[in-house]
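A.,

Following up on our hallway conversation. Structure tokens first:
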């Protein structure tokens, strides 16, 4: 085998808070009908890479059900495969530790190269170009990189390169840096180097960014090169990034073209009827998925499959996930509504002053309100901005003030 793909998809996505209570981050719905992991999987098959293993850990059921046999990505053929690798004996304690614990599986596949991907980013990428550069430069490790704003370098592994694109310095999440070339968390290893580095570095919570990459650059001076990627790439690991990246897909021009027939994003689709617009429906700049019934107004929003919007209701600048029922005369603005929520008539969500969430101001301060899966909100309730609503909450008041957390 030339190249084996390992997708790291076991992350909790803790900054997604309520949304990651019952699913891993790669299983999060995106742009209506997709899941976040669809982008990595589709990139693989579009790049002609059909031998894939997915390393899962945190709440894997939703992700496992979505992937199944891999049929939507053409991975159920005789000459292709997708394998789900759950922890056995011990939990994965870091990205590199997860690969180390599955080293025997990789050896059985006997690949020349191993492509390591994150399952929680939104992007399109032809991995063949990265593989070609890896071969041409005779690299032992190639890291996909992208330029980021200098005020965001603390979020990434930052590196410096020479004229031949060889990485000469690497620092994981520096407070400030003279370079803004960031690691995308995409690594192409020659297998012999991967095996040697994982078995040489003795550490329990072994991580590629903190341990393996600095070790290879600073200690062993192996041929480590950067592959510079200038296309669209987005981490949607916060409420703000998740909402804004979804809403960006509704604009007249989008950097990420979901409608490009030459590079399709595949997914497991539900068998649902077509979208239905009632006589009073009005929809502007929105993504409406199959099975939706719209009788109200939807503006600059993303609706996942099976959503119902009642007469007189307005959904604006929001993401509404699968099978949500929004009754009549509601007003939903700048909100993320998780699956199977029922919202009673004349309810308002996203009203009032922009007061940061008192319990988690680090997560909610820009006016987004979030409702957990399976919540039932009675009619006539007013919910402010930056509010977290847990499904366990029983409503006793008609108004939830901005910045509140109710559970």
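Then the amino acids I'd put at each of the 407 positions:
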């Amino acid at each position: 085998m030339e190249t084996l793909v390992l997708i790291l998809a076991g992350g909790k996505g803790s900054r997604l808070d309520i949304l990651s209570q019952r699913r891993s981050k790669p299983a999060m719905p995106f742009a209506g009908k997709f899941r976040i992991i669809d982008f990595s999987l589709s990139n693989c098959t579009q790049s002609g890479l059909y031998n894939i293993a997915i390393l899962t850990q945190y709440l894997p059921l939703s992700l496992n059900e979505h992937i199944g046999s891999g049929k939507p990505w053409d991975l159920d053929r005789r000459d292709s495969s997708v394998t789900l690798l759950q922890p056995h004996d011990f939990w994965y304690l870091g990205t590199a530790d997860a690969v180390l614990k599955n080293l025997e599986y990789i050896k059985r596949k006997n690949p020349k190269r191993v492509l390591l991907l994150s399952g929680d980013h939104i992007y399109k990428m032809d991995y063949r170009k990265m593989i070609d550069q890896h071969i041409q430069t005779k690299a032992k490790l190639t890291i996909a990189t992208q330029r980021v704003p200098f005020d965001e370098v603390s979020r990434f592994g930052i590196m410096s390169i020479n004229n031949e694109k060889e990485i000469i310095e690497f620092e994981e999440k520096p407070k400030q840096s003279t370079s803004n070339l960031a690691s995308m968390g995409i690594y192409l290893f020659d297998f012999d180097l991967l095996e040697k580095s994982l078995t040489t570095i003795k550490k329990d919570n072994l991580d590629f960014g903190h341990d393996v990459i600095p070790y290879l650059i600073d200690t062993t001076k192996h041929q480590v090169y950067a592959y510079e990627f200038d296309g669209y790439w987005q981490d949607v690991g916060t409420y703000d990034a998740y909402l804004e990246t979804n809403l960006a897909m509704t604009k007249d021009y989008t950097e990420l073209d979901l409608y490009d027939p030459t590079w399709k994003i595949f997914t497991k689709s539900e068998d649902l009827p077509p979208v239905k617009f009632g006589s009073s429906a009005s929809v502007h700049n929105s993504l409406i998925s199959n099975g939706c019934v719209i009788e109200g107004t939807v503006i600059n929003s993303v609706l996942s499959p099976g959503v119902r919007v009642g007469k007189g209701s307005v959904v604006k600048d929001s993401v509404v996930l699968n099978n949500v029922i929004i009754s009549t005369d509601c007003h939903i603005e700048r909100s993320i509504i998780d699956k199977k929520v029922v919202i009673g008539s004349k309810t308002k969500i996203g009203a009032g002053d922009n007061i940061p969430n008192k319990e988690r101001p680090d997560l909610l301060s820009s006016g987004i309100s979030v409702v957990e899966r399976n919540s039932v909100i009675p009619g006539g309730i007013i919910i402010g901005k930056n509010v977290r609503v847990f499904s366990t909450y029983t409503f006793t008041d008609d108004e939830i003030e901005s910045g509140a957390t109710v559970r």
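Residues 208-220 form the longest helix (13 residues). Curious whether your intuition agrees with the design.

B.
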